[in-house]
Specification:
The complex is a heterodimer of chains A (188) and B (806). Chain A has six helices and eight strands; from the N terminus they run ααβββααββαββαβ. With 188 residues, chain A is α+β, with helices and mostly antiparallel strands. By secondary structure, chain B is of the alpha/beta class. The chains are: A alpha+beta (188), B alpha/beta (806). At the A-B interface, strand 1, strand 2, strand 3, helix 4 and strand 4 of A face helix 2, helix 11, helix 14, strand 12 and strand 13 of B.
Chain lengths: 188, 806
């Protein structure tokens, strides 16, 4: 989605740079336009949100030919006014990054390496483990004979990297299976 | 947060305690500095001098784990000097309530303690009620058992000498902080409290925050612009993910988890629907049955009927009083009771306490699914240092996750702003959003159950589960739908329409909502409000940096919680220059009020603290596990043998587990005389899995270090840059010594206590950067939350003779 770009001079970072160089009497307008033109001319701008602390700084992703080519702070976000910290400023290199996983990996019992697998095989095998564990260990009643529908031997440690929508479904799935050992980063 | 980030700029004083906001929530600090520019003193109370301290008006170092002593002294100072906001305290808090005769507090223990169970019988702390069931009150505060008098008596022991003696803070520094912050007790002044994990990660974490609430209530700082208790929540969507409660003990929207003592929906509702006999109390949780049934309808759709409790009968029921959180999970895993599971986007092999034990525990699993961006110490535990892969039977699946810019959806910031983010590009390679993984795994499980049957298939097969992951569709499910045509008041709604707000949710199955808090965020009239980017404001809203049309905040777009406490009984703002709401021409203007009732003086109003059964903020809080009033207890590992407040050294109820790996140092253990605190840093994130894999960030902060004072370094013969071994009763960590005046020796009980600090983000999967600091920390937790005590452990240090981790 396209947004209206406001003056980036309002952003803390750009503002500082402008002030510093401005003191030497340089007219930065054309320089900035040239630099911007080189990098993000014709790119689509998309609003996202930094995946770190709960300031949730809004970001502008510039996308060209389906590739993310720049990430910067969004000056329209009232909290950050375009600012980002070191982590936020590194978002591009987090997305475009050789260290990232790109395929499902599998490590067999006793194995000493990862093997690449496709999603279909991986999902089927995980589902089989879930079912075997659940069918074997499901607890219908507790020691006092009370109905409890619990699966204690399977757990989930979840994440605040999940969006609200992902969390809602994750919770629904776990309670449906009877999982009680579920926890997440609010605890640690 | 009761308030929100841009509101911090309205503060007349800023107390940052248990947080290093400038480094860990850097953008929040923009608003701290705005307040400072307008004259607000910024006070940083923290063991370490950091960039937050550098930009504060003053920094006061205290010993880790003594915040209650520090703040207890502030309560005494406020009461002794009559600096509290009298009308606010009298009208809006439970200060006048009379506590029952069974209550007592003797030598560190409240009434009702059972040492065998390490638990209190909380019924002994209850209020005395009149013949109508309303708590008795003495507005004159003369009754010896009224909350005001109990509070005064309790904190009368927290004198400057005692507080200084245990915290290591000089009396001058104590007075400097007390004076600066207590100055906000005037009706037209506001002070804000900003905290983070430095308060929660203690065996008294909840009571740290309770005591800050007591201070803020005494000063009339809750509900007002520039006030509040503001948790700087750590993780990216930890606010939203907590609201959706992916935690064992609650259901979405902070609804209690069913337990075995409530076998039917009827019993659950009866136990969890508070009743107030006071006609002036809104008692908002009386609506809980509506939220529970709407959640069940969202989970089970048409299959949830009155006959099966709308699906309640199929839900798991936990054992009453049992703890299924991190510490207990890993204890059970270590002992072989846990067979398999899922770990999404978190790295417990790094970030759980006592990771030596956690890492061994994982080797007992039959199978493990990890959803991640990179390899982490958790996904790769099977070839961790000291482990022979051939001996680890665990089958491990590592699922590649999409990054934030590769998916649509919402996150909620600490100020409860619910904001949409858009997908910029397709996920890299075969990566999927975690929502996609969850939906597809469950569909594969459902397929197997459909074909083969199995254990108790009802909840698996009868849930209303999507075929694919569509965030826009889930956002609507979260808001909720009408499940049939209904008439509410004089308005008619059709089946399938979005519910306009949670006041419309029903307990009869006619509405669904995956989370009542977010109901109203996606409506027929206005669409997905999380997408709003309108910065327009009224002049009144502009005066307090309130942006009501930017995104949407839960609940009902209210930006400052309990805002009716910012006005007097006639609805007039206590601080007209920074009014949050005001009653003008028969209606409220400004923020969305905490309930639309007219002002209290009309006789038709309701008390402002609507989430409390009795409508009053709780100076005295009889609901917590470890006491109705916060009391100083030492951390589970403490450098002192006794303290001046009572004979009860540690919290009498803190959570702990027992195994050969859960060893604690004795009080004032001569083997471990130094206090260790742990923290994050600007360039790395928590366990470090993401940021160590981001080259510019690793380059900026490449290696494990330990900050120590020049005095300690001299004592130990350590030079800046030496590699040292830090050792606790549980393990060792190698780190580069950073000898710095940022850490200062503290004078405690007449002796020098040294404190050192270490970031916990470095792990072995990144070569030569060091390994988990949490090998040192103990698996002990707060009695209410079981949040581990990462912030205060006992250690010793020595120069390393051999370097292997760096």
């Amino acid at each position: 989605m396209a947004i209206t770009r406001r003056t980036f001079m309002k952003a803390a970072g750009a503002g500082l740079a402008g002030l510093t160089l401005g003191r030497f009497g340089l007219d930065l307008g054309p320089v900035r336009a040239y630099a911007a033109g080189l990098k993000i001319e014709g790119a689509k701008e998309v609003i996202s949100i930094c995946p770190f602390c709960s300031c949730c700084c809004n970001t502008i992703f510039s996308v060209k030919d389906g590739k993310i080519i720049s990430v910067e702070g969004d000056p329209d976000y009232p909290v950050s006014e375009g600012g980002l910290c070191a982590k936020g400023a590194a978002l591009l290199s987090m997305h475009v990054n050789d260290h990232r996983l790109t395929k499902p990996l599998y490590r067999a019992p006793g194995g000493d390496k990862w093997e690449e697998k496709d999603w279909a095989w991986t999902l089927d095998r995980i589902a089989r483990h879930v079912k075997t564990t659940r069918d074997r260990d499901f607890i219908v009643t507790d020691s006092q004979g009370r109905r409890v529908n619990r699966l204690e031997s399977m757990f989930q440690l979840g994440t605040s990297q999940m969006d609200n929508e992902e969390c809602a479904l994750s919770h629904q799935m776990l309670r449906g299976l009877g999982v009680v050992h579920m926890d997440h980063q609010a605890r640690i | 947060m009761t308030n929100h980030y841009t509101d911090i700029g309205n503060a007349d004083a800023v107390l940052i305690m248990g947080s290093n906001a400038a480094e860990h929530h850097p953008i929040s600090f923009k608003w701290v500095l705005r307040a400072k520019d307008k004259g607000a003193p910024v006070i940083h109370v923290d063991p370490k001098f950091s960039r937050t301290s550098a930009r504060s008006t003053f920094h006061v170092p205290l010993r880790s784990g003594t915040d209650i002593a520090f703040m207890g002294g502030m309560v005494k100072y406020i009461l002794d000097n009559n600096l509290y906001f009298k009308e606010y305290v009298a009208e809006y808090t439970n200060s006048a309530f009379i506590v029952g005769e069974k209550y007592s507090f003797k030598d560190g223990l409240f009434a009702g303690y059972d040492p065998a169970k390490r638990k209190y019988d909380k019924s002994q702390w209850a209020f005395e009620k009149d013949e109508n069931g309303v708590p008795k009150r003495d507005p004159s505060f003369k009754h010896p058992r009224c909350v005001f008098q109990l509070l005064k008596a309790h904190y009368s022991r927290y004198d400057l000498n005692k507080v200084s003696d245990i915290t290591g803070v000089s009396k001058d520094d104590l007075l400097k902080v007390y004076k600066a912050f207590a100055a906000t007790g005037k009706p037209d002044k506001a002070g804000t409290v900003m905290y983070a994990l430095g308060w929660t990660q203690h065996t008294v974490g909840v009571q740290n925050i309770r005591l800050s609430a007591i201070i803020q209530l005494l000063l009339g700082n809750i509900g007002v612009a520039g006030g509040g208790i503001n948790a700087l929540r750590g993780e990216p969507n930890v606010q939203g993910s907590t609201d959706h409660c992916i935690l064992y003990h609650i259901l979405p929207g902070y609804l209690p988890m069913p337990h075995a003592g409530w076998p039917t929906l009827e019993e659950y509702q009866k136990a969890n629907t508070p009743v107030s006999k006071d006609p002036l109390s809104a008692n908002w949780w009386q609506n809980r049955p509506k939220y529970v049934v709407s959640l069940l309808k969202a989970w089970f759709g048409d299959n949830g009927t009155e006959q099966n409790g709308f699906g309640y009968d199929w839900l798991p029921k936990i054992e009453p009083g049992e703890d299924y959180s991190y510490i207990f999970l890993f204890d059970r895993m270590y002992k072989g009771a846990i067979k398999g599971g899922f770990i999404f986007g978190t790295n417990p092999a790094q970030s759980a306490p006592n990771t030596h034990k956690v890492r061994r525990a994982m080797e007992n699993l039959d199978w493990l699914v990890v959803g991640e961006l990179h390899h982490t110490e958790t996904s790769d535990f099977w070839h961790q240092p000291g482990t022979d892969p051939a001996k680890v039977k665990t089958e491990v699946f590592l699922l590649p996750s999409a990054q934030r810019g590769e998916k649509d959806g919402t996150v909620s910031n600490s100020g409860r702003w619910h904001m949409w983010h858009y997908k910029a590009a397709e996920p890299l390679g075969q990566c999927k959003p975690m929502g996609g993984m969850v939906v597809e795994i469950m569909n594969a499980v459902r397929k197997l159950y459909q074909a083969e049957g199995g254990a108790f298939t009802e909840p698996v097969l009868k849930m209303d589960w999507p075929a694919t992951y569509d965030p826009e569709n889930v956002a609507k499910r979260i808001n909720g739908f009408f499940t049939k045509d209904v008439k509410i008041g004089d308005k008619e709604y059709k089946k399938g329409q979005l519910v306009p707000g949670f006041p419309n949710l029903q307990a009869d199955g006619s509405t669904s909502s995956l989370n009542w808090l977010y109901c109203g965020g996606y409506t027929e009239a206005e669409g997905n409000l999380a997408k709003r980017r309108d910065l327009s404001q009224t002049p009144m809203q502009a005066a307090i940096n309130l942006y009501p049309k930017f995104s949407w905040a839960w609940p009902v777009n209210r930006r400052i919680l309990y805002n009716r406490a910012s006005v007097d009984k006639d609805g007039k703002p206590y601080n007209p220059a920074k009014a949050v709401i005001a009653w003008e021409d028969g209606k409220w203007v400004g923020d969305v009020p905490d309930g639309g009732w007219p002002p209290m003086s009309s006789g038709k109003g309701k008390y402002p603290f609507i989430m409390h059964t009795e409508g009053h903020a709780q100076l005295y809080g009889p609901g917590r596990e470890d006491g109705p009033l916060p009391e100083h207890y030492e951390p589970a590992e403490t450098p002192v043998k006794a303290h001046g407040f009572s004979k009860q050294l540690n919290s009498p109820c803190y959570k702990r587990v027992d195994s050969d790996k859960d060893v604690l140092a004795a009080p004032a253990d001569p083997r471990f005389p130094i206090v260790l605190t742990t923290y994050s840093m600007t360039e790395h994130w928590c366990g470090g899995g993401e940021t160590r894999n981001t080259p510019p960030l690793l380059e900026a902060e490449p290696q494990q270090y330990v900050e120590m004072s020049p005095q300690l370094a001299k004592e130990k013969g350590i030079k800046n840059g030496d590699v040292v071994i830090v050792e606790s009763a549980r393990g060792q960590v190698q780190a580069v010594a950073m000898v710095t005046v940022r850490m200062r020796p503290l004078r405690v009980q007449g002796k020098t206590v040294h404190e050192i600090g270490m970031p916990f983000c470095f792990g072995w999967t990144t070569p030569k950067c060091g390994d988990a600091v949490n090998r040192l920390t103990a698996a002990v937790g707060d009695p209410n939350t079981t949040i581990p005590e990462y912030k205060a452990s006992l250690v010793n240090i020595r120069k390393a003779d051999k370097v292997t981790e760096l």
